[in-house]
Amino acid sequence: MKIDPERFLCDLHELRKIGASGIGKGVIRPAYSDADIAARKWLAGRMSDAGLRVHFDPVGNLFGLAEGPSILLGSHTDSQPEGGWLDGSLGVIAGLEVARAAHEAGGPAVSVVSFQDEEGRFGVTTGSAVWSGQTELQAADLMTDHDGVTFAEARARMAEYASGFVDPEQFKSYIEMHIEQGPSLDSSGDQIGVVSDIVGIRDMRITFKGQQNHAGTTPMHLRKDAFQALSAFNVEINDRLADIVTPHTVWTIGHVALHPNASSIVPGSVTFSMQWRDADADRLAEMEQVIRTTANGVSDKTGMSVEFGALLWLEPQTMDANLRLALEAGAKAVAPEKWRTLPSGALHDATNVARLMPVAMLFVPSIGGISHAFDEDTKEADLIAGLKVLGSAVTHLSN
Ligand code: HGY
Ligand code: MN
Ligand code: MN
Ligand code: MN
């Protein structure tokens, strides 16, 4: 099998043009947006040219299928609202190049996937979560984005392409290549990371409801200002979580919707996202209790009501030992002395796919550790090293 780095880079740059942000190399390609659908149609053409059978499932996961039992490679091509050009796309396009080279060489059988809504416009890694059975389709259909659009409405945009769900039995294993999205490899000067585990996550929307009122006439002591409730919650939760976490635990209030969001109105309500991640499922559960207790405490103290949305969750996931050995053999050959093992603090479709088959992941460095931002990037030499390790692992597994 002869992998072609030039062809791989060329495809990667072609894909970047679809939904290009115009700022740095960034992309704006959220799940089911025009740009996301255009990118999937482009990718379907590339898969077909590579000798793969194109298949869209009911949620918009796009597969390029090889004949017979195959190794599945891929990731996702949707992006964050402000996304980097490599997050997800790298694993899909590297998989495409390996599958194409394998097809040209007459084997081994390699299939490719681009999962839908990995970036969680609706849930957490929604497309692979539904395919793997982590999330029921009926439950997913009821999920809403921050503008109130339901998953059912969004996926209907792709209904004209959809066939049934792909039978996972045809795949022997899944390998996902990705950028690290953190600073470890960049700061140690390593080119390749072989992933040991992926952290777990919990994500929940919380709403404080107070009393909307006039910002000029309402005395301070009579206000029920929802922003003040969020502000108090934020200070208190940082304090209280600090007592039970490790240096690797993280939590984020990343989306805030203040209502009605006007200078001269005391805000009547606020809905915000509370997300927390850790490698230990028990700690995640303990953090949930602290979060609920703290929000209830703020509600009691301020006389405002609090509501909790549905809890989204993914458990921590360990990578398959045999697949890791294949990646390590590739890393030793391609980047001797410049690879190491590390955990993933970002989530990946691999967590869901692990319900169906053995999975593993490899990372290449992110310059400055930056991702989920337009200025995300990776050195070309590192992208190519990752591609070669992926190809080498596939060859190793088929021998
Ligand atoms: O947020 C994550 O870890 C993933 O990239 N969606
Ligand atoms: Mn990603
Ligand atoms: Mn991401
Ligand atoms: Mn007025």
UniProtKB/TrEMBL annotation:
<dbReference type="Pfam" id="PF07687">
    <property type="entry name" value="M20_dimer"/>
</dbReference>
<feature type="binding site">
    <location>
        <position position="372"/>
    </location>
    <ligand>
        <name>Zn(2+) 2</name>
    </ligand>
</feature>
<dbReference type="InterPro" id="IPR036264">
    <property type="entry name" value="Bact_exopeptidase_dim_dom"/>
</dbReference>
<feature type="binding site">
    <location>
        <position position="178"/>
    </location>
    <ligand>
        <name>Zn(2+) 1</name>
    </ligand>
</feature>
<dbReference type="GO" id="GO:0046872">
    <property type="term" value="F:metal ion binding"/>
</dbReference>
<keyword id="KW-0862">Zinc</keyword>
<feature type="domain" description="Peptidase M20 dimerisation">
    <location>
        <begin position="200"/>
        <end position="296"/>
    </location>
</feature>
<feature type="binding site">
    <location>
        <position position="87"/>
    </location>
    <ligand>
        <name>Zn(2+) 2</name>
    </ligand>
</feature>
<dbReference type="InterPro" id="IPR010158">
    <property type="entry name" value="Amidase_Cbmase"/>
</dbReference>
<feature type="binding site">
    <location>
        <position position="87"/>
    </location>
    <ligand>
        <name>Zn(2+) 1</name>
    </ligand>
</feature>
<keyword id="KW-0378">Hydrolase</keyword>
<dbReference type="InterPro" id="IPR002933">
    <property type="entry name" value="Peptidase_M20"/>
</dbReference>
<dbReference type="InterPro" id="IPR011650">
    <property type="entry name" value="Peptidase_M20_dimer"/>
</dbReference>
<keyword id="KW-0479">Metal-binding</keyword>
<comment type="similarity">
    <text>Belongs to the peptidase M20 family.</text>
</comment>
<feature type="binding site">
    <location>
        <position position="76"/>
    </location>
    <ligand>
        <name>Zn(2+) 1</name>
    </ligand>
</feature>
<dbReference type="GO" id="GO:0016813">
    <property type="term" value="F:hydrolase activity, acting on carbon-nitrogen (but not peptide) bonds, in linear amidines"/>
</dbReference>
<feature type="binding site">
    <location>
        <position position="119"/>
    </location>
    <ligand>
        <name>Zn(2+) 2</name>
    </ligand>
</feature>
<protein>
    <submittedName>
        <fullName>N-carbamoyl-L-amino-acid hydrolase</fullName>
    </submittedName>
</protein>
<dbReference type="Pfam" id="PF01546">
    <property type="entry name" value="Peptidase_M20"/>
</dbReference>
